C-alpha cells in the first residue's frame, strides 16, 4: 500500500517571481506530487498563479520545474512523486540570443 502521507518540500522561487512570495527565495509547502506542491504554493500566493499556469490550468510552456535537479518533463510531469525534504525549483526559460 503506497504511503499517502503528505510530504513537506521546499519550493525554490526564482528572483523574477519573488515579488509574489513576499520576496522569499524559498517556500515550504506540503504535497505528495509536484502538482500538489505547486497548488499549495498558488493557494498561499494567488497572484503567482497567472505566472505559472495558462487559463486552461496547464503549466506555462516557459516554466520548467525540477525536483532535486531532475527535470519533471523526463519523469512523470506534474504527477512526479515527492519525498519528504525534496527541493522543487521553478526555473523560467530565458529567451534571447
Can you offer a commentary on this structure?
This protein has 97 residues and is of the alpha+beta class. It has helices at residues 34-44, 49-52, and strands spanning 8-12, 26-30, 63-67, 70-71, 87-92. It has a five-stranded mixed beta sheet with strand order 2-1-5-3-4, covered by helices on one side.
Would you give the CATH topology? Ubiquitin-like (UB roll)
Architecture in CATH? Roll
Q: Report the average pLDDT across residues.
A: 91
Distance N to C terminus? 50 Å
Instruction: Give the strand content.
Output: 15-25%
What is the helix fraction of residues, given as a range?
Answer: 10-25%
Low-pLDDT residue spans: none
How many separate domains make up the residues? Answer: 1
Number of helices: 2
Strand order across the largest sheet: 2-1-5-3-4
Order of helices and strands: EEHHEEE
Radius of gyration: 13 Å
Protein traits:
97 residues; alpha+beta; Ubiquitin-like (UB roll); 2 helices; 15% helix; globular
Amino acid at each position: 500500500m503506497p504511503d499517502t502521507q503528505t510530504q513537506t518540500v521546499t519550493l525554490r522561487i526564482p528572483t523574477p517571481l519573488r515579488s509574489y512570495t513576499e520576496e522569499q527565495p524559498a517556500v515550504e509547502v506540503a504535497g505528495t506530487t509536484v502538482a500538489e506542491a505547486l497548488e499549495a504554493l498558488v493557494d498561499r500566493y494567488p497572484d503567482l498563479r497567472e505566472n505559472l499556469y495558462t487559463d486552461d490550468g496547464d503549466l506555462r510552456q516557459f516554466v520548467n520545474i525540477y525536483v532535486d535537479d531532475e527535470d519533471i518533463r523526463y519523469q512523470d510531469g506534474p504527477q512526479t512523486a515527492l519525498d519528504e525534504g525534496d527541493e522543487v525549483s521553478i526555473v523560467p526559460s530565458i529567451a534571447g540570443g
